[in-house]
Design brief:
mainly beta
Length: about 290
């Protein structure tokens, strides 16, 4: 991480990580020296990737506990299935919120119809911790169509408010603590003062972003002060996340918890086959590494 200015606490360049099947993600969280931003503990940017006919995403069933995952696409689609019996496609602009709570299993694949034609995939997947009092709630899944996500302009800057409250608007996506997740699209020369949030970071999806008159490169992750001012010297799109800190979380594989012993129990349960199965996707699973 590199400290740049009084308004920028740190800037980091995400690490590339292969998920197989031709998919490489840029992982901004967790990062050495930065384990979370507000409640957010995991930030993956996948794609853009072009799949030839016969190829596609093929993430087999795997478990989570004590967290919530948030999936958001710019291009393509993902077929989600989970152990609650949900089976649906997410498309650009929509939001999938999966609350693991006391345990859930899910898979993320490409539909047979789309795999036959070939397609492009591009999006973000984030995880946030749950407050300790909510870590063991029953698992939930919520799908919000793109039409339900608030879209508005502030000083001419186009905003999509994916989660939380900002600029007098509120997203319908369920939250469990103070949480912010929004997308902003800036034209050349535009600027925007970000919300007043205890902890916040900005991810640049392309070149052109400036913070405190300092350039932020494409795919860099900047941890910023509350109400930092962003601007653009070329058209750019950013993701802004933040909220209240929930304290230290242990993380191992797909498990996150405030309690180390809970992660050990989840590992044992997965190895022993005690997690529920995913209806319609019972034949495969990702073994504990």
């Amino acid at each position: 991480m590199t400290k740049i200015s009084s308004d920028i606490k740190a800037v980091l360049s995400p690490k590339a990580k292969s998920l197989g099947d031709g998919i490489t993600v840029k992982r901004a969280l967790p990062f050495a020296g930065l384990r979370s931003v507000g409640p957010w503990v995991f930030f993956d940017h996948f794609g853009p990737v072009d799949f030839s006919p016969g190829q596609g995403m093929n993430v087999r069933p795997h478990p989570h506990i004590n967290l919530a995952t948030v999936t958001y696409l710019f291009e393509g689609e993902i077929f989600h299935r989970d152990s609650l019996g949900n089976a649906l496609v997410i498309r650009p602009g929509a939001v999938n919120l999966m609350v693991a709570g006391n345990g859930i299993v899910h898979s993320e694949r490409t539909s047979a119809e789309l795999k036959a034609t070939g397609y492009s995939l591009h999006g973000l997947q984030l995880w946030h911790a749950l407050p300790e009092s909510k870590e063991e709630i029953d698992a939930e899944f919520h799908h919000y169509p793109a039409s339900e996500i608030p879209e508005f302009s502030v000083d001419g800057v186009k905003i999509r408010l994916i989660m939380g409250k900002a600029f007098g608007y509120e997203s319908p996506v369920k939250t469990f603590c103070q949480t912010l997740y929004m997308e902003a699209t800036l034209k050349v020369g535009q600027s925007l003062t970000l919300p007043d949030i205890p902890e916040m970071a900005v991810y640049s999806l392309n070149a052109g972003l400036m913070i405190d008159d300092q350039p932020i490169d494409e795919n860099q992750f900047a941890v910023v002060n509350s109400q930092a001012r962003v601007s653009s010297n070329s058209a750019c799109k950013i993701a802004v996340i933040g909220g209240e800190s929930l304290g230290h979380r242990f993380m191992e594989w797909n498990f996150i918890s405030s309690r180390k012993d809970r992660i050990e129990q989840a590992k044992s349960d997965w190895i022993a086959g005690k997690f529920p199965i995913v209806p319609g996707d019972e034949e495969e699973f990702i073994p504990y590494p």
